[in-house]
Amino acid sequence: MTRLGSLIEELDVEVGENAGLDTSVTGFAIDNRKVAPGTVFGAFQGLRVNGEDYIPDAVKAGAVAIVARPEAKVEGAVHIAHPNPRRLFALLAARYFAPFPDVTVAVTGTNGKTSTVELTRQLWRMMGHKSASIGTLGVTTSVDQVSTGLTTPDIVTFLSNMSGLKREGITHAAFEASSHGLAQYRTEGLPVVAGAFTNLSRDHLDYHGDMDSYFDAKMRLFDEVVARGGAAVVWADDPWSDKVVERATKRGLRLLSVGVKGQALRLANRTPTQLGQTLEIEADGEFYKVNLPLIGAYQAANALTAAGLVVATGGDVAKVLELLGRVQPVRGRLERAVISKAGAPVYVDYAHTPDGLRAAIEALRPHTKGRLVALFGAGGDRDAGKRPLMGKVATELADHVIVTDDNPRSEDPSAIRAAVMAGAPGAEEIGGRRAAIAAAIAQAGADDIVLLAGKGHEQGQIIGDRVLPFDDVTVARECAG
Ligand SMILES: CC(=O)N[C@H]1[C@@H](OP(=O)(O)OP(=O)(O)OC[C@H]2O[C@@H](n3ccc(=O)[nH]c3=O)[C@H](O)[C@@H]2O)O[C@H](CO)[C@@H](O)[C@@H]1O[C@H](C)C(=O)N[C@@H](C)C(=O)N[C@H](CCC(=O)O)C(=O)O
Ligand SMILES: Nc1ncnc2c1ncn2[C@@H]1O[C@H](COP(=O)(O)OP(=O)(O)OP(=O)(O)O)[C@@H](O)[C@H]1O
Ligand SMILES: N[C@H](CCC[C@H](N)C(=O)O)C(=O)O
Ligand SMILES: [Mg+2]
């Protein structure tokens, strides 16, 4: 049984007089509809609504304490007041849900988070640790994968999942820290021993406004989330890398930079092979050769970042680099779905930003003898400014481009396509993703390659409020058969 008083011990918070600090706490919630008797309710001001408006309903449902700004009106429950209620709520919830896996690391960046946490999980596992990852693919262990819906789930789901993993015996966990998640304190409270940065490029400016604010949201990982004395693993070859190094060093974190300009793991050479690539890596003055069984410069970057995290948490460099030769592909990231009747390989990839599209097309180029056909769309209710930029990158780098639908959500799909087409001269526009995939595969010859970008592992097409079953890999197989 957890007492409310023990949760707030030694914290700098205000509680009202006669506060019921002896009351026992039975859970945490940030949505009043999930409050049960004994719950601590976090009332936050959101983008859509003000959570403080739901305080009376939460109290009626049995909330024993409300974490909210000092200005919020609370009657009938303890008011735990703090100017930054999201942060305080995370701290209290972490005290409630503890213990967590012994070693926890986080990955941020515009692209590559999912791949990096997944590869980190695999490397740890091969080293004999019981490991897990949390992110876009859900909660993944060696025996299970459960979807959570968001890349960085809400703080209560996150901490209860982490606590559940510990109960299952997981000792090592890697999670994705999205910019939304960091800005909304969705992954706080537990000790994070290392953080990694993959890259930064345009995305989510609908939410963050401009690139500097987007960068700052991500930097909370190094400024605040990684524990004091922890490590920062930084991909060194991104235009933003030096700034990240500066922030991490200023905080006093132990730096491991990786990449062509990296110091801890220096990528000295990279040669694509038919089914993967050969990497030459310099570490501590020694050279190592790795036959990475994944294609694409971007996946080499993510593999090195993952290796950096494993080394930062105690892994032996030589052993970790050797194990890179045995990693499995990540679902929906340059996944070969099928080879068409004509003989064209069809790849599914999760590229959904201009930079991601560039990375995916460049990854496939060395494997293309003939034409590279790229198909993609852009998601509705997301950064609209990236749409023409995605069109531009694709038409510049692919031989033929088909613009179709990604999750339109509440938007008109033809308007989204028009915005992409505005940056994509010469592209073919085909509404309806299945029809577009069929057309892409039908026009590819034996030497060509087809890239279906944007949805990766996703299992549904979100149209309005409905999620219709849709899986690029399955549809590609159906169209190729
Ligand atoms: C823009 C955004 O990130 N919104 C998320 C955020 O909303 P918010 O804090 O602004 O909340 P709000 O809806 O205004 O509500 C305010 C508060 O009132 C509460 N509430 C609300 C209604 C009610 O009836 N009762 C109630 O108590 C809410 O729980 C919330 O605490 O907090 C909500 C509760 O956890 C999330 O569901 C919601 O995610 C929405 C659905 C979403 O689409 N998010 C996407 C953009 C997202 O987060 N994506 C990232 C990035 C992926 C990437 O890496 O590229 C991700 O991590 O998945
Ligand atoms: N290191 C990288 N550099 C550039 N592009 C990348 C990199 N890693 C992945 N990508 C591109 O981004 C896509 C998504 O990769 P991944 O799912 O690993 O990223 P993510 O950061 O988790 O994305 P999300 O923001 O949706 O969670 C890939 O399919 C690929 O096209
Ligand atoms: N984490 C990203 C995923 C985008 C995937 C793409 N298929 C889309 O729906 O835009 C987002 O929520 O913006
Ligand atoms: Mg992800």
TrEMBL record:
Q: What does this protein do?
A: Catalyzes the addition of meso-diaminopimelic acid to the nucleotide precursor UDP-N-acetylmuramoyl-L-alanyl-D-glutamate (UMAG) in the biosynthesis of bacterial cell-wall peptidoglycan.
For the Mur ligase C-terminal domain, which residue ranges apply? Answer: 332-456
BP GO terms, sorted: cell division; cell wall organization; peptidoglycan biosynthetic process; regulation of cell shape
Catalyses which reaction(s): UDP-N-acetyl-alpha-D-muramoyl-L-alanyl-D-glutamate + meso-2,6-diaminopimelate + ATP = UDP-N-acetyl-alpha-D-muramoyl-L-alanyl-gamma-D-glutamyl-meso-2,6-diaminopimelate + ADP + phosphate + H(+)
The listed locations are:
Cytoplasm
What does the record give as its pathway? Cell wall biogenesis; peptidoglycan biosynthesis
Question: Which Gene Ontology cellular component terms are annotated?
Answer: cytoplasm
Q: Which residues form the signal peptide?
A: none
Highest taxon of source: Bacteria
The record's annotation in SUPFAM superfamilies points to: MurD-like peptide ligases, catalytic domain, MurD-like peptide ligases, peptide-binding domain, MurE/MurF N-terminal domain
Q: Where does ATP bind?
A: 109-115
Q: Does the keyword Ligase apply?
A: yes
N6-carboxylysine sites (modified residues): 218
A molecular-function term among this protein's GO annotations: ATP binding
- What gene does the UniProt entry assign to this protein? murE
Q: Which cofactor does it need?
A: Mg(2+)
Q: Where does UDP-N-acetyl-alpha-D-muramoyl-L-alanyl-D-glutamate bind?
A: 151-152, 178, 184, 186
**What is the protein named?**
UDP-N-acetylmuramoyl-L-alanyl-D-glutamate--2,6-diaminopimelate ligase
Record-listed E.C. numbers: 6.3.2.13
Return the motif ranges for Meso-diaminopimelate recognition motif: 406-409
Q: Which residues of the sequence carry a binding annotation for meso-2,6-diaminopimelate?
A: 382, 406-409, 454, 458
The family classification in the record reads: Belongs to the MurCDEF family. MurE subfamily.
Record PTM text: Carboxylation is probably crucial for Mg(2+) binding and, consequently, for the gamma-phosphate positioning of ATP.
Domain annotation Mur ligase N-terminal catalytic: ranges: 25-78
